[in-house]
Amino acid sequence: MSTSQRALRTCISALTILFLMSVEAVQTADARTLVEVPEDLIAVELATVGMASEGGVPVALLRDPGGGDVVPIFIGVNEARAILMALYEVPVARPMTHDLLGNLLAALDARLERVIVDDLVEGAYLGILELRVGESERRVLVDSRPSDGMALALRTGAAIFVAPKILRAAPDLDFQPLEGEEIVSAIGITVVEATDELREAMGLPSDAGVLISAARAAAAEAGLRAGGMVLTVNGEPAISPLTFLNLVRATPRGEAATIGYWQDGERGAVEVPTDVPEPERRPASGEEVHRF
User: Fold this and answer.
1) Which comes out higher in pLDDT, residue 133 or 288?
2) What confidence tier does 282 reach under pLDDT thresholds 50, 70, 90?
3) pLDDT at 56
4) Which of 2-6, 39-43, 167-171, 244-248 has the lowest average pLDDT?
5) What is the pLDDT, as a whole number, of residue 88?
6) N or C: at which end does the chain have fewer Cβ atoms within 10 angstroms?
7) Helices (H), the chain
8) Is the pLDDT of residue 165 over 70?
9) Cβ of 254: how many Cβ atoms within 10 Å?
């Protein structure tokens, strides 16, 4: 190793220590503490981004598998686009802001374990990032806007949790998909509209249904994969991505959803649990992370 490389490595190590010290300083000085008891937090699934019918404000929709509820979290337009890009798994030539944050955590040997929406103050949702640094079991908490946390969670494969009070306070809100951006992820199945163009290009059947763009966890283990279609949920036609979400929500508590599908010219049905699937860890995006 050359002298310049050793000097660079020493500099990076010093910057890493300073960063971690600043994170701990934030935690102990001006950051919030977790409002809820950790054991009471509820795992939810980020289903989609929609638009509130009244006011036209973007909302992130979190699915609660226990009660079938959807919790709308108001977010900004930029954050809505960042979440949609992650749902679509759009590759980027250069890291965007949330990609950069994920790369930074990876470079510093830190991992985002959970994004927690734990409080609602004067109409504003408050969130916390729960980080683990290196092999330590100790968690570091960092104050965050929920929208940024959710965009980062999708890029890193972190879990999303909410406090019970967030579920209780969820407004009864009418929402609709963003124009031209109807994509839903539920029970490990990500679906988009099966347009006429996609049907023709991919040789899809004319049945009512939605196109599977990704499948993971129990859905993938059951044989569902990208390029197939979800035709029905519990016997009801899934005519759009939001209909698919609502049919999953209507599945009786504790029961699996019966998914009628088309795959490679064959039709069938599988049962998929409605629990929140275990998150899949994702590598840092963008350019390769170099360590010295």
Assistant:
1) 133
2) low
3) 81
4) 2-6
5) 84
6) N
7) 3-28, 77-88, 97-107, 146-156, 164-168, 196-202, 217-221, 241-249
8) yes
9) 10
Sign for the pseudo-dihedral over CA of 139, 145, 147, 152: negative
The CATH number of 182-272 is which of 3.40.50.720, 3.40.309.10, 2.40.50.140, 2.30.42.60? Answer: 2.30.42.60
In the beta sheet, which residues pair with residue 96?
A: none
Q: How many helices (H) and strands (E) does the chain have?
A: 8, 15
The confidence score (pLDDT) of residue 236 equals 97
Read out DSSP for 161-207?
EE-HHHHHT-----EEEPTT--EEEETTEEEEE--HHHHHHHT--SS
Domain ranges of the chain: 1-30, 31-168, 182-272
Between the two ends of the chain, the Cα-to-Cα distance in Å is 10
With 0-12 CB in 10 A as exposed, 13-18 as middle and 19+ as buried, what is 87? buried
How much is the pTM?
0.79
Mean pLDDT confidence for 82-100:
82
The whole-angstrom separation of Cα 183 and Cα 241 is 6
User: DSSP letter at 162?
Assistant: E
Length reported for the chain:
292
Q: How many Å apart are CA 199 and CA 51, to the nearest integer?
A: 27
Write out the CATH class of domain 31-168.
Answer: alpha beta
Sign for the pseudo-dihedral over CA of 16, 22, 28, 31: negative
Q: Higher confidence at residue 283 or residue 110?
A: 110
Q: Which two tokens stand for residue 135?
A: 């092999």
Positive or negative: CA dihedral 44, 49, 54, 55: positive
> In the beta sheet, which residues pair with residue 45?
63
Tell me the C-alpha distance between 16 and 95, whole Å: 20
Per-residue pLDDT at 121 exceeds 50? yes
**What mean pLDDT value characterizes the chain?**
84
